[in-house]
Write a structure and sequence with these properties.
By secondary structure, the chain is of the alpha/beta class. It has a domain at about 5-10 and about 25-50 and about 85-185: 3-Layer(aba) Sandwich (Rossmann fold). It has five helices and six strands. A six-stranded parallel sheet has the order 3-2-1-4-5-6, sandwiched between helices. The longest helix has 16 residues, at about 25-40. The radius of gyration is 15 Å and the shape is globular.
Length: about 190
């Protein structure tokens, strides 16, 4: 049976919530779905949970093209209260400074050590960080699944566009479809 990793991307104070300076408008709507996905993952021996945290330097090169956000050690880079990693249950944290959670991080090393062969992406900006992470997962030879109701963007067109792009090389499923799929053995996609 294959092992999965739920990759929860940038559910941080700077992106989700009324006070978020770079607010993803539908970010709040996906919180219950991600919570449900995490609870499900914690009941499955073959599923790991990875929380991805943007954590920039104050003078990060990323700020040449985007506004200053998610500075490491600040409120903006912290996980939202509803989606705090649970290290006692084995949740892993990956800090990133670029769109993809694979870019210059230890995500690939962690996944390989855990025997993961399938990456399941969720979180905010479907058309940017989620899609970039999904693409890099493919480049690293992982199977890719996107949880359609566990991702969000600035608007529905951006969200659908990101999912459409991911669907070219991976599977796009609702949370319920994924839970049914992942609970069956053996797992093949």
């Amino acid at each position: 049976m294959g092992n999965h990793a739920i990759i929860i991307i940038d559910m941080l104070n700077d992106f989700v919530g009324e006070k978020a300076p770079l607010r993803c408008p539908d970010g709040e709507k996906i919180v219950p779905k991600i919570q449900e996905l995490i609870e499900f993952a914690h009941t499955q021996d073959h599923i790991r949970v990875v929380h991805v945290q943007e954590a920039h330097r104050k003078e990060d090169a990323d700020f040449k093209v985007r506004p200053v956000h998610a500075i490491k050690g600040t409120w903006g880079s912290d996980f939202i209260p509803e989606l705090q990693p649970n290290e006692e249950k084995g949740d892993y944290i990956v800090q990133k400074r670029r769109h993809s959670a694979f870019a210059y991080t230890d995500l690939d090393l962690y996944l390989r050590e855990e025997g993961v062969d399938t990456v399941v992406v969720t979180g905010v900006w479907t058309n940017v960080c989620v899609r970039s992470t999904a693409s890099d997962a493919l480049y690293h030879t992982y199977k890719v699944i996107a949880i359609s109701d566990g991702c969000a963007s600035a608007d529905e067109d951006m969200h659908r566009g990101g999912l459409r792009d991911i669907g070219i090389f991976g599977k796009v499923m609702t949370l319920e479809e994924y839970k049914d799929f992942a609970a069956k053995k053996p797992i093949n996609i």
